Amino acid sequence: MTSKVVVVGAGVVGTACAFHAASAGLDVTVVDRGAVGAGTTSRGEGNVLLSDKEPGPELALARLSRSLWEEAGEELGPHSIEFETKGGLVVANTTEGLTALREFALRQSTAGVRTEPVERVRDIEPHLAPGLPGGVHYPQDAQVQPVLAAAAMLRAAVARGARFHTGEIAAAVTGRGDRLTGVRTVVGDVLPADAVVNAAGTWGGEVGRRLGAPIEVLPRRGFVLVTEPLPRMIRHKVYSADYVANVASSDAGLETSCVVEGTRGGTILIGASRERVGFDTTMNPAVVARLAAQACRLFPFLRRIHLIRAYRGFRPYCPDHLPVVGPDPRAPGVIHACGHEGAGIGLAPATGALVTAHLLGRPWRGADPAAHTGLLPDRFFLSGGVPK
Amino acid sequence: MSDPADLIIVGAGPAGMAAAATALAGGLRVVLVDSGTAVGGQFWRHPPEHARSVIPTEDLHHGLREYHDLREALAAHAQKGQLDLRLHHHVWSAVRQDDVFVVHAVDRRKAPQEIAVVLRAPRLLVATGAYDRQLPFPGWDLPGVLTIGGLQALLKGGGVAAGSRVALGGTGPFLLPVAASLAARGVEVVTVCEAAHPRAWLRHPGPLLRNPGKWAEGAGYALTLVRHRIPVRPRTAIIRAEGGARVTSVRVASLAPDGSPRPGRERRIEVDAVGVGWGFVPQLDLLITLGCALTDSADGNAVVAADEGLRTTVPGLYAAGETCGVGGAALAVGEGRLAAESVLADSGAAPVLRGKRLAAVRSAVAAQRAFARALALAHPIPPAWSSWLTDETVVCRCEEVTAGVIGTARAEGACDHRQVKQLTRAGMGWCQGRMCGPAVHCLTDPKQAYRPAERLVATPVTLGALADLDT
Amino acid sequence: MSELIIDGKPLAFVEGQSVAAALVATGRVSWRATRAGHRPRGVFCGIGVCFDCLVTVDGVGGQRACLVTARDGMTVTTEESTDE
C-alpha cells in the first residue's frame, strides 16, 4: 500500500489522478512545469464521447468515465466544470455509410452504449444540410470545459490535502533494492514518494524515460476552429460517420473529418484534423480550409459565419492507439497514465480512479484493475500482450 | 500582375509605403496588401481616393509631403505593373512553406462578400502597425467613450467628430494631435488628462535634444492647444465615465506618483464623448505565427526582434514600423526604407540608398528610436492604475468579464493572461484579447513585457471563403 | 448625398465614409447590445480591432461598421443577427 504519491502532469488526467488519490486519503503532490491544464488539455473540444469508440478496453474505460464525470459534476458543481449532456449525432453521407454506421452502433449497444437510430436528422438538428440519409443519436455523449475541469479537480485535491509543485522532473530517486523513494526535479528538489504517476500526456514518453520506464507516446497534431459567437444553432456534437474511421486510423498523412458543435459561450467549435508531423507547431491553412469545407457541407449556414480563432494541440498516442494505464513492470513504483490520444478529457476521471485503484491495491469508485488489464503497460513488453 | 512577386508587404502605412517605394525603385516586383480603403495606414489615414474633395482632411495631417511623394511613387509603379496594390484585402494567415511565403487574404472590395486570395513570394515584410493600448476603468464601455485613435480615425477617414464636448485622457504625445484635430473641427475639448509628469522628460533629455523635429512638432500642437484654450492637465486621469445610454460625464482625478487617485482631488466634468489611450500595442499576430523571436520594448510590449537591417529571426521575413517597437511615422518610414534595402541586398539586387543618404537614414532611425525609448519611459502605465477598477468593471468587453472575476482567477493561481483566459473567457471573444489582453497582463504579470496570445487567425474570415480554398 | 438603408430607414452619407462614420455623423455612437449584459455598444476603436461596432450588411452578420465603406442602397441591420 502506497501513501506518498507524486503525479507528474497537471493536465486533465493528472488532476483527475490527484483528485481520486487525494479522495482516497493518499498524500499527493502534483508537479508540472507549467500551469494547470496548459498542455493538450487546453487544446481540445472537451469531448466526453462514447459514440466514437468500438467495443473493447477503451470503451470499457469510457463508460466508467462517463459516469464518473457525472459524479464529479455533482461533487465539484456542474458549473465549475461546465458539464453538459448534449448528446452526439453521427450522420452518414451515403446509404452505404448509413448501413455501416448502424452496424457499428448495434455492436456498441450490445457493449452497453445507448444508441438511437435517427431517420430524419434534421428533426433533431434543423440546420443540417438537406439530403443526408440518416444517423445515430448517442444521448450519453457529453461535454466538459477541460481547463475549468482540471482546475476544479486540482482545487478539490488540494482541499483534500494535495500540494501543487511547479517544476520539471528529472529522474526517479531510488533507495535500497531499487525501491522508489521520490523524484528529483531539474533544479534539484526531491519530492518524496513511494509511487509516481506519469500523467504527462504528450510528453509522457520523455517523462517515462526520465523515470526509468520508457514508453512510446507520440504526438498527433490537431487543429480546432472557433467561430464567432451565435445564438444556439447546433444542439449536439455532430459529426459525419467517417470520423470513426479516422479516429482508429494509423495513416500518416492528414486526416480530417469534422466534429461540429455549439458551446455555452455561443461559439461553434469545428474539430479536428489529425496529422502525424511530430511537434511541428506551424500553422497549416490547408487544414483549416479542409475543416471549414467539411463543416459547411454539414451545416450550410456556416458559410456566412466567421472563423475568429484556430488553435492546435498534440494528442498523445501509443502505437496501438490505446491509453497506457497501470504500473510499469520494469520500474517498481512507476504508474503510467498517458497516451489517451484525442480522448483524454473523456477518459480522465476513470483513469484517475483506475490509477488510484492500482495505488490502493483494491477497486476504487468502480475502477477495478482486474477489469482493465488491456490497458496495462505490460502489453508492450510481454509476449503476445498487445490486445485487439 | 502575372509575374511572380519578389516581395509581399503587409500593411500600407508609413513603413509599408516607404518599404514598397524603395523596393520598387530597386527593381523588385512588389505586392502591397492592406485592409484599408487607401494607402496611408492609421497615421496617414485618408478617405478613399474618390471621396477626398467632399471629405477634406488634409489640414489634420503631419508630414504630408512625404506621404504624397510615396503615394505618387507607388501609383507610378502600379501603373507600370511592377506594383500589385491590394487594398480592402484582409490577411488572415501567413506561413512559410519551402522557402516561399504564402499569404492568405480575403478580398473585401465587395464587402460583405469575401473572396479568398493566396499570394506567394520568396520574401515577406510585415508592417502591420499598432493600435491604442487601453486600460479599463468604470464606464469605459459606455457609448461615447472611444479610443483616441478611434476619434482620430473618424475625423481623418470620415470627416466626422464623435462628440461636441470631449474629454481626452491617458498618456503619451498622441493625445495632443487628437485634441488639435478635434479642435480644428469645432469640437470643444474640455480637458486633456496626461497621467505622466512633464518632469519625467528631464530624466532623459538627450534624445529630446537630438530630435529637434519632434520638439517643433510638439510645440506646434502646444500652440494649437493654447489657441483653442484646451487645458492639458499633467498627473491626472479619467478614472470613471458616467451616463446611461451614452456617456454624460467623467471623473477626473489628480494622481499620486504611483498613479493612484489623490483622495478628495476629483472633479466631475460634463461631456458627450471621451477619448482614451495609453500608448500603443503592436500588431504582431502574423509575425508570432511565423515563429519570429520577440524582444522586450521599453513601453511594456514585446516587439519583434530585428537586426539593424530589420531582418527578423525567420529567413526572408522582415518587419518595419511599430511591429519593431512603437516609434511613430518618421521612424516607420526610415525603417521601411532600411528593411527594403535589406530585401534588395538579400535578393542580390543593387541598393537604392547609398553612401551619405543611407548613413543619414540610419542615423535618423537611431535617433528616433532613442527618442521613442525616452518617450516610453516618460509615459509609463501608472503602476496603481488598477485602483480605479471596481469588481463590477468590465475588463473584457467582448465576453463581459469583470475585474472581480479576473481577481478570483488570480486568487486561484492564474498568473498570466493566457491562464486567466482559460479560466474566465477574458480574451476569447470577437477581438481575441486585443482590447483586454494588455490590461489582463498588467493585472497578472506587470513586471514582464506583454506578449500577445498566439492568434493563428489574424482577422476573422468567413468559413465560406475558407471552404472555397479547399479543392 | 447617397443613402443606405439602416433597420428599414434611409440614412444619408457622404460617399467614402464608413458605415460607422455615417452613423456617427447623425449623432449615433451605439447600435448594438452585448450578449450577456445587453449593454449598448457602438464605435470604440474605429479601426477594426475591437469588434464593438458589429452590424449585419446585406444579410451577412459580423461586419465591422468602421471598416465597411457605405454604399448606395446597402442594407444595414443593427440588431444582433438571430435569423440565420
UniProtKB/TrEMBL annotation, chain A:
Coiled coil: none annotated. Residues 4-357 form the FAD dependent oxidoreductase domain. InterPro entries: FAD-dep_OxRdtase, FAD/NAD-bd_sf. The keyword RNA-binding does not apply. PROSITE patterns: PROKAR_LIPOPROTEIN. Gene3D superfamilies: D-Amino Acid Oxidase, subunit A, domain 2, FAD/NAD(P)-binding domain. Transmembrane segments: none annotated. One of its GO terms (molecular function) is oxidoreductase activity. Keywords: Oxidoreductase. GO terms for cellular component: cytoplasm. This is FAD-dependent oxidoreductase. It comes from Streptomyces toyocaensis. The lineage of its organism: Bacteria, Bacillati, Actinomycetota, Actinomycetes, Kitasatosporales.
Automatic annotation (TrEMBL), chain B:
This is Oxidase. Transmembrane segments: none annotated. Pfam families: Fer2_BFD (PF04324), Pyr_redox_2 (PF07992). It comes from the Bacteria. PANTHER family: ANAEROBIC GLYCEROL-3-PHOSPHATE DEHYDROGENASE SUBUNIT B. CDD domains: GlpA-like_Fer2_BFD-like (cd19946). One of its GO terms (molecular function) is oxidoreductase activity. SUPFAM superfamilies: FAD/NAD(P)-binding domain.
Automatic annotation (TrEMBL), chain C:
Keywords: Oxidoreductase. InterPro entries: 2Fe-2S-bd_N, 2Fe-2S_ferredoxin-like_sf. The keyword Cell division does not apply. One of its GO terms (molecular function) is iron-sulfur cluster binding. The keyword Transport does not apply. It holds the Pfam family Fer2_4. This is Proline dehydrogenase. It comes from Streptomyces toyocaensis.
